[in-house]
Specification:
The protein is of the alpha+beta class. Among the domains are: 378 residues, 3-Layer(aba) Sandwich (Beta-lactamase), CATH 3.40.710.10; 110 residues, 2-Layer Sandwich (Trypsin Inhibitor V, Chain A). The protein contains 21 helices and 31 strands. The protein is elongated, with a radius of gyration of 37 Å.
């Protein structure tokens, strides 16, 4: 009986406990599923959900013809697992292998491979930022092959992981490496835009990342009926620049020759279309490769828009334009050169030739780059108020508005009478940037319109499929068209007069060129240095229909006896000649005109048996004009023959088919001799009318025979004639019409006697600094 009672009691106790547990379970289920149901559902969704960021592609940067200058491409980042590497006893193998592939020092790699946590255990993830970041595919492939080799060699030791990992992502790539590097700019290794177009147009180029969120099962497979949230990535906008890939190459090639010969601290050049102020090229030496993250900062500074120089004798162009506009410049008027004494100016202002050239005309004063002539024109005749007005109207002392960051402003600071006098020939109190110089001289060339420099041709949005284009922007009319034309004719004689003209080394056979040299002592302490100079040349061509304006400035060539006429003018000539040929600009007079000066010729390269694509590339690189005759893929013959010495503007005909298949090419501008050779090759009879060069052609049938009638005409213009006069021409050593170094530095009431591009003492650090 007692046993039954005990069993019943245990049963009731067990049942009660079970009932209590069940009630607790039910209560808990109620709380979880009803009271806190929403909370736990949200947590579950987080556990079920997965999210991936969709990275937007950064917009491309191209030149005006679509040649890519900057683009996104696949790159690889290297990371290591020190714990796995050390447990597998592969420390030395990994260090040696990666050292050979990456070129990173073994000490640096050892730091990564042996990295430990605070508790003394090896870390499980270590990014190799120094030398292992943003790797090209070729390098990544070598690392993958090395990893597979390690696994194979250690298979018997049951090693299944060697602790080397590669992840792919997008990186910025600059396929043309150093070309236009300071202009294009760069992104650092973390993708931050640092300089140039990359930084100034970062918002447009960047785009916006997207994402996808979805629900997954325990195996991380997307649920077919799960919720999906998706926002597509919006790629960055594509920017087409105004620069021309070929002209940029010509500019950099010319600067490289200067660097090779004169080893300057820096060299800068800008080429622009004076009619639109579209920048066709902008280059600085030394260059840098934006693909190389570790060495790109020191040379990424863009002197073209940031560095301030005293403009020197190139600034005389502005004073001349003002004098012509105001009617105070008479080219035939005579004056006494050598020196001039001014009231309120303690030191006389001298010409580079201390005793001058005697009594000469103001036009000869321009050719010799006489300081005295410009003091008379600017200080005595125009005066402070009008000078300041013209200098301001031409854009000095203000930013040009070029859409690049950190453009410098420059100064116009008249305090003393000597400041005004020196400003007339570009010394001391006027500081400018190269881009201001180009904009001002473009205004002189284009009919008097100051234009805002343009660097972007168009911006295309890949999302909306719309393209924004940029038109020339006129800031103001600074001089009349008539004045523009007269100044161009005067500046042309600075180049064409081979006896007096300081710019004679910029003369280009067949083209009318206007320009001005500059040679300047730099400030050294409180005085001007006698060994440190900045030399320059600025000009445009053709004078009657300007297509290009080019400015070349060289900081501290290693020879103190050279000037702008010797260093910068030849570079200008090389750039302009190749550019005009590339543009297809016909010469103002043919090479064998009686009045043309015989000085330029090139040797025709041998293109026979070249593939047409290769021949086109070769001739384009040499800036030689050519025409394909026929539709073949290989050059069978060429006219003129290989090795012929021809004028740089001579067209090269590439024959690609047999004569029975050939069409008649355009022969306009060709001499009768070459036309006869070409038509003979084609198998058509030539009937000429007149003498000189072909101006029109017409194919006809005469007695059932195909003939080509051509009309020839003599040269349509003549080369500028050199005037007779006394003088020494291009002076030696600081002698392009600029004075010596016996004055005080800028900012004093004394008058220095030299001109031309000097970097003020306060600006020198700026010139050599990085952004």
């Amino acid at each position: 009986m007692k046993m039954k009672k005990r069993i019943r009691l245990r049963t009731l106790l067990f049942g009660g406990v079970m009932t209590l547990l069940f009630l607790i379970l039910i209560s808990r289920m109620y709380v979880v599923q009803v009271v806190e149901g929403a909370k736990w559902y949200d947590l579950a969704k987080i556990r079920w959900s997965a999210a991936e960021e969709l990275v937007a592609k950064r917009g491309t940067i191209t030149d005006r013809s679509g040649n890519v200058l900057a683009m996104d491409t696949i790159a690889y980042n290297l990371s290591l697992n020190p714990k796995v590497i050390n447990e597998a006893e592969l420390t030395e193998e990994v260090i040696d292998g990666l050292h050979e592939i990456l070129g990173v020092s073994k000490d640096e790699l050892r730091k990564n491979v042996m990295a430990k946590k605070d508790d003394g255990n090896f870390v499980v993830h270590r990014e190799v930022r120094n030398g292992g970041w943003q790797l090209d595919k070729s390098v990544a492939d070598q690392i993958k092959a090395f990893r597979e080799e390690l696994l194979k060699e250690n298979k018997e030791k049951k090693v299944y992981d060697v602790g080397i990992d590669l992840t792919d992502n997008l990186k910025r790539y600059y396929p043309r490496k150093t070309l236009a590097s300071q202009l294009v700019g760069y992104l650092d290794r973390d993708g931050a835009a640092m300089t140039g177009v990359e930084a100034s147009f970062n918002e447009q180029l960047s785009g916006e990342n997207g994402f996808i969120k979805y629900e997954k099962d325990g195996k991380r497979v997307q649920l077919a009926e799960g919720d999906v949230e998706y926002k597509p990535a919006e790629n960055g906008q594509d920017i087409k620049l105004t620069i021309d890939n070929d002209i940029q190459h010509y500019v950099e090639e010319a600067l490289q020759e200067i660097v090779k010969k004169y080893a300057p601290k820096s060299a800068t050049a800008i080429a622009a279309d004076p009619n639109t102020m579209e920048i066709l090229a902008m280059a600085n030496m030394p260059q840098f490769n934006p693909n190389e993250y570790s060495v790109n900062n020191s040379s990424s500074y863009n002197h073209a828009i940031k560095s301030l120089y005293e403009p020197g004798s190139t600034f005389k162009i502005v004073t001349l334009a003002a004098a012509v506009e105001e009617g105070v410049f008479n080219p035939d008027e005579m004056y006494k050169s050598g020196l001039i004494k001014l009231k309120g100016v303690p030191t006389p202002i001298r010409d580079i030739k201390r005793d001058g050239w005697g009594t000469i005309s103001f036009l000869d004063g321009l050719k010799y780059s006489s300081n005295v002539a410009f003091v008379k024109l600017g200080y005595e005749r125009l005066g402070e108020e009008r000078l300041r007005k013209y200098y301001t109207n031409f854009g000095f002392g203000q930013k040009t508005g070029i859409p690049l960051g950190n453009e410098s402003t420059g100064t116009i600071n008249f305090r003393y009478a000597s400041d005004i006098a020196r400003a007339t020939f570009g010394q001391g109190v006027v500081t400018v940037t190269p881009i201001q110089q180009v904009a001002a001289v473009a205004a002189v060339a284009n009919g008097g319109k100051l234009l805002q420099p343009q660097i972007v041709k168009s911006i295309t949005d890949p999302v909306t499929k719309t393209t924004q284009t940029f038109e020339p922007k006129v800031v103001r009319q600074v001089i009349s068209e008539e004045t523009s034309k007269k100044v161009g004719e005067y500046l042309e004689q600075v180049v064409s007069d081979q006896e007096k003209g300081t710019g004679k080394n910029a003369y280009i056979e067949g083209y009318r060129v206007a320009g001005k040299t500059g040679t300047a002592q730099k400030v050294d302490g409180k005085n001007y240095s006698t060994t440190k100079f900045v030399v320059s040349f600025i000009g445009y061509a053709p004078v009657d229909d300007p297509k290009i304006v080019v400015y070349v400035v060289v900081d501290e060539p290693n020879d103190p006896l050279v000037g702008g006429g010797k260093v910068a003018a030849p570079a200008f000539k090389q750039i302009v000649l190749k550019s005009l040929r590339k543009m297809g600009v016909a010469p103002n007079y043919p090479a064998d005109s009686e009045n043309a000066q015989k000085e330029v010729s090139i040797t025709v390269p041998d293109m026979k048996d070249y593939k047409v694509v290769q021949a086109k590339a070769e001739l384009t690189a040499k800036a030689m004009t050519f025409e394909l005759v026929g539709n073949g893929k290989t050059v069978l013959q060429q006219i003129p023959a290989a090795g012929s010495a021809v004028h740089p503007t001579q067209r090269i005909y590439l024959i690609t088919e047999q004569r029975e298949k050939l069409a008649i090419p355009d022969l306009k501008g060709v001499s009768l001799r070459d036309a006869l050779e070409i038509t003979s090759l084609i198998g058509i009879r030539l009937i000429p009318e007149g003498q000189g060069y072909i101006v029109s052609q017409k194919e006809e049938t005469l007695n059932n025979v195909r003939v080509l009638k051509v009309v020839l005409a003599p040269p349509f213009s003549e080369a500028p004639k050199t005037e007779d006069a006394d003088g020494t021409g291009d002076s030696e050593a600081k002698g392009e019409g600029e004075a010596g170094a016996e004055g005080e530095a800028p900012g004093t009431d004394g008058t220095t006697t030299q001109t031309d591009q000097q970097i003020t003492a306060g600006d020198e650090a700026s010139v050599n600094s990085t952004p």
